[in-house]
Amino acid sequence: MPLSEIDPHLDPGSFELQDLPPTHASQRNLTSMSTEQDIARFHYTTEQNIRAWYSCGGDIDPSTLTFDRSWSHISPKLQDIYVERARYLGRLAEHGMPIDGSQCENFFIEVYTGYYQARGKGNGVGVQGEEAMSLTTFDALLGERIGRRVNIDDKPQLEDQDIEMNTQPPSTEELLPCLQHKATTNPMLSRLETAVAKGVQTLIHLHTFLTNSKTELKSSDVSDWLSEITKIKTYATPPKVVIGIVGSTGAGKSSLINAIIDEENLLGTNCMRASTAVATEIAYNYRSGKKYRAEVEFVERGEWERELRALVGDLRDDGENSVSFSGVRGEAMARNSEAAVAMEKIRAVYPVLSVQEIKELDVEELLSKGGVCDVVGQTVVLESDDPKAFARDLAVYIDSKSKRLKTVATNNTGKGKTPMRTIFDTQTTTTTTNYWPLVRVVRIYTKAPALATGATLVDLPGIFDSNAARAAVAEEYMKKCSAHWVVAPINRAVDDKVAQDLLGQNMRVQLHMDGAANDLTFICTKTDDVSVSEVQESLLKRDSVSPGLGEERLSRLEEEIGELEDWLVGIKSEILDVAERLEELEVCSEGGSQGSSPGKRKRDSFVSAQQPALDNTSETQSDSGSASGSVSKDDVRTLNDRRKELTNHQRTLSTERHAKETQKEAVEHELQALQTNLIHECIQARNAYSKRELKHDFARGIHSFHNTSQHPPTSAKDPSYYHALEQDLPVFCVSTRAYQKLQGRLRREAPVSGFNALEQTEISQLQAHCIAVTEQAREASALRFLFHLRRVLSSIGLWAAAEDGVMVSHGKKVEIEARFYIAEESFKREVERTCEGLMQGICDILTLNVIRNFGHALTLASEKCDETVKNWNDLNYNTYKAVCCRQGVFRFHNWNQELANLVIEPLMHDWKNAFEIEMPQEVDWFTQLMKAHLQAFHAQAISAAEIVLSDEIKDELKDIWKVQYKVMKRDVVYAVNRARRKQRGINREFAVGVEEYLHPAYLKCACENGSGMFHRMREHIRTQSTGIELFQHSTDRVKSELIKLLDKIEHDLISITTRLMEQTTRDYTTCIITPLVQQFASSSQSQARIKREVADVVRGAEMKLGLDGLLNDVTTARSTAATSHGYGPWEGGGHDGQRERRALETIKEEDENE
Length: 1154
Prior knowledge:
Strand order of the largest sheet: 6-3-9-2-10-1-11-12-13
Number of strands: 15
Largest sheet: 9 strands, mixed
Oligomer: single chain
Protein name: G domain-containing protein
Region (Disordered): 1-22, 587-666, 1122-1154
Structural class: alpha/beta
Number of helices: 42
Radius of gyration: 41 Å
Domain DUF7605: 862-1031
Distance between the termini: 39 Å
InterPro entries: DUF7605, Dynamin_N, P-loop_NTPase
Domain Dynamin N-terminal: 243-502
C-alpha cells in the first residue's frame, strides 16, 4: 500500500531528516540486545521519546525522558505491538541483510523521527493528542527506508509455509532426505513427492549452471530466473500441520504421545507437571545431528513480573481462613485454593522464602533474588541420542519434582537463542531454585516416522493456565491448528459426555468461527481397563464364551492328579518296606543259627486298597518266617516279586499322572485363551459402543448448538447434515500400555490381557491417521511446487530455444509489434479491472454478512450482558479477585470471551458463510475470468504474429498460458487460504476489544482493599459492562482488523497478477518480438552455445521429471473424484467429512482441451 494512503502527511519522496532528536542516555544500544523483548523495549522508548520531543516542539530537557523505566508498566497488548516490530528484524535476515545493531538503531530513530516530524508539519502544530504509530505504518515506513538503502526485494507474499512459533524450516540439504522418505498410502501423493525431490535437485543444478553463465549471457532475464528458482525451492518445504491435543488431567495425553512417536517414556510421568502447565510441541527432527533435540523457552522478565504480581496478590488476598502462619516454614493453606497454587509456583523459584517474607517483599525485590535474571528471556537447547538421558535432562527444566539445577549462560551461539550450560546440584534440598514456573513453551524434535510428513503434535492444556504467557502461547497454537484431538479415558468418555463437556460453549463458538468443527478427532484412552462382568451384563447381554466348563474340567483334573499323588506316595512307602524286609532276610540268612536279629526295624506297611490280598499274604509270610526264625527261598522270591509289582504299578501311576498334568496344561492354555478372547470381546464391544455414542453425542451437540443460536444455519433443518457429521467423525479407542508391551517396551510392567496384535490397540491406526491428516496439505504443497517448476522450465526453455525469426520487412515488423503491444495493454487492463472486481466482491461479502449485522448483534448482546455479569457474582472472593487481576482470564474462567460470545453468536453463521462459502465462490468467478483473459491475449498475440510463428512455437505458447493460469489459480487459492487462517485471529479480537474496554474496571478491582471491597469490585465490573459501548468498542476493533485483512488480500492479489502479467508477456515477447529484433542484432556464438546447453538441460529435466504426464494424471484423478462425489471446483468430499475446509484447499482441475 502506498505511504500516502497509509498517512496523508507522509511524503516518501521528501522523507529525509535534518536534525535527529536526542535519545535518552539510559537507552541501551541495539548491538548489546539479544532478546526480542529488549529490542521491543528499545522501539517503545525511542518512539515515546521522539513523540514527546515533537509534542513539545523540541523544547524539552532530554534528561526528563524516562520512558525506558515505564516499559514494564505498560499493558501487555501495547507491549505486543512493539514485539511485532522487533520481529521485523527477522524479515531482514531472511533477505540476507546483515543485522548490524547500530545501523538498525539509526533506521528506527529515523523512521520514528520522520513520522512525527511529518505529522507535525502537516498539522502546523506539534503532535499532541496523536495516537502512537500503527504497526502497518511502521512496517511500510521501515520497508521504504530499508528498500532505499540496501536494495532488498519485497518479501515474497506467498511463501508462508506456516512455520510458526520460532521453528525454522529445514535447509535444502536437510530437505532432500525427508522428501524422499515420506510415508503415505496414497500412490499419487507418493509420485508427487518423488517428483518434488527430483525437482529440487533439478533447480539446484539449473541455478548453478545459470549462475556460472550469467556473465556471458548478460541478460536481465537470467537474474529474474535465478530469483524465481530460489523462491520456488522454498515451496518444497514440507507444510507444517499442527494437531492440538486437549484433554483433562489424567486422560493419558503424555502416554498417548509417547506411543504415537514410538518412545517408551520421552514424555514420562515425571513430566506430568509440564504436560499440564506448559504447551509442549513435538515435531519431526529434520536435522542430521542428534536424534533428539529440545528447545526450552523461558518467559520474558516483564511477563514473569506480571505473573509474580498476580501470584503475590493471591497470597495477600487469601485471608486468615486459608492461610495460618506457624513459623518461617510449614504454612498451611487450602489445598486447591488460589493461594496454594500461587505458593507452589513462588516457592519453586524462591524456595528459601516463607509466606510472610513473600508477602512483605516488593515484587522488584523478588525479581532480583534467585537465578531468575539468568534464565528469563533465554532458550535452552538440549540434544542427545539417548532417549532416557534426554528425557531426564528435559525433566530438569519442566518438572518440579526432578533434580534441581543451576544454570550458567554461555556465549550467544545462535540467532535468538542462548544455550545454557546445566549444572546439576548434588544437594537436592528445597533451597535450590527450580525453574518450571518460568517456562513458556517446550519444543521437542524427534525422528518419529509418524511425524516425518509434517505433523506437529501440541499438548494444549495451557489454554486454562493461570500464567498469561503460557496461555497466550496455547491460544496462538489454537489459531494454527489444522486438527484438534480430544482425549479422554474410555470409562468416562461416554458417561461424562466428553463430546460436550470438553467442548464447552466458548470452545464450540471458537471452533465454529474458525471453521474447524469438522477437524475434530476423539480419542478414548485406557481401553485395557475393563470390567468383564459389567460389559457382559450391560453390552453383551449374555455369557459370550464362558470359561465355566473349562474350569470344571480343570478342577476334576486337579482332584485326579491329587489322588494319583497320594497313591504314588503309598507305593513308594511300601517299596521301602519290601526293601527293608529283604535286607532283614539276607541278614538272617547270613547269621542262620544265631536266630533273629535283635535290632530289627519295624515299619507299618502301606496297605493298598486295590491289593489287599497280596499285602495280607506278604504280611503272613513275613510273620511265619519271623516266627520260625528261618529264611526260606520262597519268602525271598515272594518279596522280590512284590517289589517288581509295586515298581510296575508306580510306573503306571506316574504315566497316568503325567498324562493328567498334560491335560491340565492344555485346559489352562484353553482357559487362558478363552479369558483373553473374552476380555478382547468385551474391549471391542465397549469400543464399538463408545464410538457409536460419541459420534451420536457429537452430532446431537452440534444440532443443539445450532438450535439454540438466534440465527441458525440453513443446515440446521437438514437431518442428513447431522447424519454426515455423525458418520464422518473420527473416533479411536486406544490402549497405550498394550501397544508398548507388544512393542517390547515397559518390561517391568505386567502383561496386558485382551490384545494379541498391534492393530487391536488402535495406536497403529492413529499413527496412520496422523499421517493422513497431512496428506491434503502435502498434496497442495507438492502441486504448487511442481506447477511453478513446470512454468519456470517452460519459460527458460522458450528463451533458450529462441532463434532468428522469419525475415519480414521493417513495416511488417512495426505492424506486428504494434498489434502485440495493443494486445498486451488490453490484457493488463482486463486483469486490473478483474482484480478490482474481486476486491469489491470480497468487500461486499464482508459488509453484507458481517459489518452490516454489527448493529443488530450489539443490541442483542447489550440485552443479555447484565445476566452474564450477574452469574459471576456466584464466584468466591479469591477467584473473583484473581480473574480481575489477570484481565478477566483465570484458569477456566474467561469473562472477556463470555461477553464477546454475546455479540459473536448472532454473527457466527453469517461470518462462516462469508469466509467458507461466498468468498470461495467469488474467487472461483475471478479465476474463470482470468482464464478467459489469458486465452484472449493468447489468441490476439498469435493473430498478430501469425506469419512469423511456427506451429511448434504456437503449441508451446498454448502450453505456457495454460500453465500460467494453473500457477496463478493455485497462488490465488493459497493467498485466500492464508486470509481465512488470519480470520481466526480476527474473530478473537472480539474478546480482545472487551478486555481493552474493561481494563479500567479490572485495574480498579485489583487495587481494591478494605471493608466492602468485594461489593465494590462487583460494582466496578457491572458499571463498566453496562450499555452498548462495550460491544461497540469490540466490533470497532474487529472492523479495523477486517479492513487490514482486505488490504492484505489486495496486496497479495496485486502481487500475483502483476507477476502473472510480467511472466506471460515476457514469454510471448521472447517468442514473438525477440526474433524480430534478432534480425538486426544476432547473439554472439558463445551466447548461442550457452543457450543450446541450457535448452539441453531443460529438456533433460523435463524428460526426467515427466511433469506433463504426472500433472495430467493428477487432473484426471481429481476430475474423476469430483464427478463421483458430486461436488464442484470449490467443494470437497471424502470419508473424513472435512468438506468445509476443503472448499478452498481442494481444486478440481478443469479440462484444458479446447
